[in-house]
């Protein structure tokens, strides 16, 4: 087992305002760059406060669920139902991400509907 570096400093917790700001940015970032924004946010900010961690996990789980829907949609485009799946996933992704950003900005914990829990 290796000892931790004496130079490693734990990251200080974020202020409540910063937690809300980063949470809103990750929810909105999911609209534009899908699962990448929540993944980066989760990896960088998961230990900086309970509110921001909850929102990073919620956004990441929702975006991964949407990724599965997109893959299923692409796989079934031959049957033409895939186009509907892709369109529905796109609309739901935008709508629920905006609702999550609004709730987060108000300091509320938002739970995405239909999200599979991959990360806890």
From TrEMBL:
Recorded topology in the membrane: Multi-pass membrane protein
Q: Tell me where the transmembrane regions lie.
A: 24-45, 52-72, 78-102
Cellular location(s): Membrane
A Pfam match is MamF_MmsF
Q: Which domain of life is it from?
A: Bacteria
Q: What is its main location?
A: membrane
| Protein's name in the database | Membrane protein
